Task: structure prediction
Amino acid sequence: MSAAPLLTTAAGARKAGATSGRTRRRAGGWKAYLYILPAVLFSVTFLIVPTLQTGWYSLFEWNGLSAATWVGFENYLDVFRDEDLRDSFGHVGTLIVFYSFVPITVALLLTMVISRANALRGMSFFRTVLFLPQVIASVVVATTWLSIYSPNGLLNTILRAVGLDSLARVWLGDTSSALIAVGLIGTWLNVGLCLVLFLSGVGNVQPELFEAARLDGANGLQEFFGITLPALRGQIVVALTLSVVSALKTFDLVYVTTRGGPGNATSVPAYEAYSRAFVSGQVGSAASVAVVLTIVILLVTALISRMQPKEAE
Result:
């Protein structure tokens, strides 16, 4: 039998096999798109479309019921001209200090102590207790702290018991203390989250590094700044991102505890958007505040992400 027909048959088989393989890959590709289709539809329906709709509403003066009037970018200009709106964005800056920088600092100090102490009995229990605020509903947290801050609440009772009656006050009803009081709730919420992130980062550091540093006579601060802190750079960026974003979009704590008061001492952009949309009937203005807040969150997140170490990306 001649070899030519055999070669022709083999070449035809290879070609048919390649064609069949491409067909299978093409079919598999379409199946992959079908797997992600529900998530895409969900995102388009409940995220992209509402966001675009909010942006469209922001170009109108509308009370939600009557005919809307086109005003263009006037609502966005009001975000910078309206004193209450400017103050609300300023208040967020204060909350970032309490929601982000203070918890990160406290968590780093606790991490320094814990990593230096090798093993502490009951560490799992303390981690659970410190992380517990993250799994409790925000409304429950706010209601609890509302009770603590009340005139006859736990905080004032302790102050009076130790002879500091002059410091007792209506914490959430005083313009000088209301925003700080709300901020301290954020501190209590985020310390546990930051600590868990940092302890997980320390767990990835080789123990030999700590042992070598101690053999060389390094004290706690030298060990922390030389080994622990550099190893936690990625976790710090994550904690910074989560805590700053939580401060920027704060709504539930303010709504339950102060409703933006006294006056507008604790008003924040998210609460202003809610109040203008559902209380005062300024839907266009509320939409513009929501859009500006979204842009600020995206910009801040992008800036913080640039701090991420290259090796962790």
Remarks:
- The mean pLDDT is 85.
- Residues 3-57 form one domain.
- The chain is about 75% helix and 0% strand.
- The first strand starts at residue 60 and ends at 61.
